[in-house]
Specification:
Number of strands: 8
Number of domains: 1
CATH class: Alpha Beta
Strand content: 15-25%
Number of helices: 8
Shape: globular
Bound molecules: zinc ion
CATH architecture: Alpha-Beta Barrel
CATH superfamily: Metal-dependent hydrolases
Structural class: alpha/beta
Length: 240
Amino acid sequence: MQIVADLHTHTIASTHAYSTVYEMARGAKNRGLIAIGITDHGPDMADGPHEWHFSNLDILPRQIEGVTVIRGIEFNICPGGALDHIKESSLKPIEFALASFHECCFAPSTKAAHTEALEAVLQDKRVNALGHPGNAKYDFDKEYIISRCNQYDKLVEINSNSFAIRKGSRENCTEIAQLCKKYQVPIVVDSDSHIEYRVGCVDNALSMLEEIGFPEELVINSSRERLDSYFRGRGLHLFE
Ligand SMILES: [Zn+2]
Ligand SMILES: [Zn+2]
């Protein structure tokens, strides 16, 4: 299995990331990818961009260096499951949205509180995918949430960066992927890269998925056809 697109990346619009949009697209090209999602942190993160970053995203060309650029955001999940403070009008250009727990916006709490927040996120139509749900600091009722993802048209992200940063995340990601397989929930495999050189680095995630015999047809970014079909199903024609 391989990926053809990386749908979770950050640019210097968040100051703890170090490459420009152009450089990230070049990183994707060097990795042989056909598309990249630029998904900077929502404005509630201390160094996330102002909401004008998002409202102006439609000036990005559809292709940079031959790589299709998808305009995105990584929302911060706040207690109770609300997302960043941002006007609906600022989100108009957004084509792909992840929603994730980050400690600055939601201090790790109880399993029940995390599950309740994720249940609210499931019902939020602005969100495409649950971002890095394998983070061991945010335990949740995995079966309860994953089994409801298809009903709410939510993807689950297997975030390769999670494997490197936190003990316990590999086990969590494996359990989550197994539940996605059981409930036939489509996933997206991403790098969460904060610099050009790591775009498309998802070997840890892919080797885990191979170990558990995860069906390739459920990985929406594993082929051009699957990626295209996912976005076409949501009204976006990426490759025209
Ligand atoms: Zn970040
Ligand atoms: Zn994140």
